[in-house]
Amino acid sequence: MSRSRRRTKLRNDDDEDGSASSTMLTETATGWHVLKVEGYSEINGLGVARRLKSCPFVVGGHTWCIAYFPDGLTEDTADCISFALRLEDRCAGTGREAVMVRTTFSLLDVAGGPVPSFTVPCGVWTFSRIGQSCCHARFMERKEFESSYVKDDEFCIRCDVTVLSAGARPPPDLRRQLGDLLASGDGADVTLEVGGESFRAHKNVLAARSPVFKAEFFGGQHREKVAASVSIHGIEPRVFSAMLHFIYTDSLPDIDDGDRTAMAQHLLVAADRYGIERLKSICEYVLCSFVHASAVVTTLVLAEQHGCHQLKEACFKVLKSSANYKQLVVGKTFNIWQALALSSPRAAWT
């Protein structure tokens, strides 16, 4: 006996890094078939990998059958009973297109209901050719099966089949939407004054991304009295604009190649100030790729001040590889070098 029905359900394959590579599995048809085996004692001992097949049934336009292996599918599973779903024929017009199926095998009790402990989902399988099977080799040990579930020399097994189709899913657009929100200023509830320029923003977004902003806007006893305009000092407007862009979109705006290193240095300082660890890590990575002998001492100082271990290691590597490293610390950088040597003895090696 078999029944089928149609419904649609999306499988959520969330991609945390925002990648556009994602799929959607849609249930195009769902059905089930019950195999009733009578005269169990007569077929027991059929032989390993020898099977009995159910009557064919149709789900999603494809023809299927249940295969039953009374003596196991392989020598390793000879002490078990095994079941499989087998593709007997394809839906007309599908050619060689693969068929994706979600399958569950359920042993039925005497009342016809599934036995919970032996209702076994087999996940999603892809059938690429006629005759291919989705197997459950160790469904149950034969001794337990015979002692508990074979009644009057018969039993019933049910196979639920859901045919799926795969298609492209639109890429996540949360970053774009938040970027548009920042650009439009819709719903903004705070104005940030930076170096003579004003930036409209949303306290909730800023607080969600920065523990410093969170403490400033929502951490005090008088948080409801936080001004609608906040002045920020010690940061250039263009640097703050880039940091704000990152806060909303988790990405950096386009930066000219000639300004990349300087911007990365300024953003690293700003990210450290506002506790935006991911931005700080990105800036550190960029700077590690652009450590030059001409600025290695100032870069090392920056790394030391802001706890950037990888950047410090990159600076030490440049210093070690320089035959005239002592000349790198003369002139206006000498005092910087001396201060660094006090806080980081490793820098003072000779």
Automatic annotation (TrEMBL):
Protein name as catalogued: BTB/POZ/MATH-domains containing protein
Similarity-based family: Belongs to the Tdpoz family.
PANTHER family: BTB DOMAIN-CONTAINING PROTEIN, BTB/POZ AND MATH DOMAIN-CONTAINING PROTEIN 1
Organism: Miscanthus lutarioriparius
Region (Disordered): 1-23
Lineage: superkingdom: Eukaryota
SUPFAM superfamilies xref list: POZ domain, TRAF domain-like
Domain annotation BTB: ranges: 188-256
InterPro entries for this protein: BACK_BPM_SPOP, BPM1-6, BTB/POZ_dom, MATH/TRAF_dom, SKP1/BTB/POZ_sf, TRAF-like
Pathway membership: Protein modification; protein ubiquitination
Domain MATH: 30-161
Pfam families, per the entry: BACK_BPM_SPOP, BTB, MATH_2
Position of the signal peptide: none
